[in-house]
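queue> pop job 88
queue> type: inverse folding (structure -> sequence)
queue> payload:
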């Protein structure tokens, strides 16, 4: 039975903490082990799941074993070197601190042919599709992918053609609307006529203002002449009275 392993050396977690997590995945298939580690509340599960993924990747790449036929055959944590530190305490004392390390190893192996056949019968009886059949279906879908890509390209071409036709229709509609607006709006000749009429009206108003100013000046002169005559008459009467 071929086995593939992955090891994490000098992990900063204490060995007994990692062993508690490794006990959850020992002897179970890879998919179930990964699911258990994902929902495990211990911090050591994050390191263990990375080691498990590395072991599965090694089995697929080096030994050409499918991941759905693997299980965790062994998982253990060896004690690594202990880093000794000191914590200062009262009265000149010091307390030793032991920082534990460990080496985490996960070994995966392929199920035997008899076990795989038994699991296939169980899955068939329960109505589940075996993983091998799912792989064959995925391979068939991958072979059908080029045809699907060609169909997608044809659909894209149809969509682009429809968009071009719609754009042409929209441009024609905008041209008709622009012509209608140009027809409804006054032309350049009408604008020139309006401007000429306004200018003539302004000239007439200016001439009327000049006439009014002339009439006002004439009235002022007549008033001044009347006042002069009145003063002259009063002066003559005064002289006659004195004589």
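queue> result:
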């Amino acid at each position: 039975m071929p086995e593939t392993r992955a090891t994490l050396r000098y992990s900063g977690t204490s060995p007994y903490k990692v062993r508690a997590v490794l006990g959850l995945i020992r002897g179970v298939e890879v998919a179930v082990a990964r699911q258990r580690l994902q929902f495990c509340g211990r911090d050591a599960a994050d390191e263990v799941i990375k080691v498990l993924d590395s072991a599965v990747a090694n089995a697929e790449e080096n030994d050409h074993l499918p991941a759905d036929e693997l299980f965790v055959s062994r998982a253990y944590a060896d004690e690594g070197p202990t880093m000794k530190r000191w914590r200062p305490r009262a009265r000149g004392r010091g307390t030793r601190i032991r920082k534990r390390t460990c080496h985490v190893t996960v070994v995966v192996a392929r199920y035997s042919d008899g076990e795989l056949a038994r699991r296939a019968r169980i899955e068939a009886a329960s109505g589940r599709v075996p993983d091998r059949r799912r792989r064959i279906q995925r391979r068939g879908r991958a072979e059908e992918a080029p045809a699907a890509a060609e169909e997608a390209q044809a659909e894209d071409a149809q969509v682009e053609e429809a968009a071009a036709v719609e754009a042409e229709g929209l441009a024609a509609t905008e041209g008709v609307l622009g012509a209608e607006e140009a027809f409804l709006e006054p032309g350049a000749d009408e604008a020139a006529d309006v401007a000429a009429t306004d200018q003539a009206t302004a000239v007439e108003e200016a001439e009327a203002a000049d006439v009014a100013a002339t009439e006002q000046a004439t009235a002022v002169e007549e008033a001044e002449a009347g006042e002069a005559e009145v003063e002259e008459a009063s002066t003559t009467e005064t002289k006659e009275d004195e004589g």
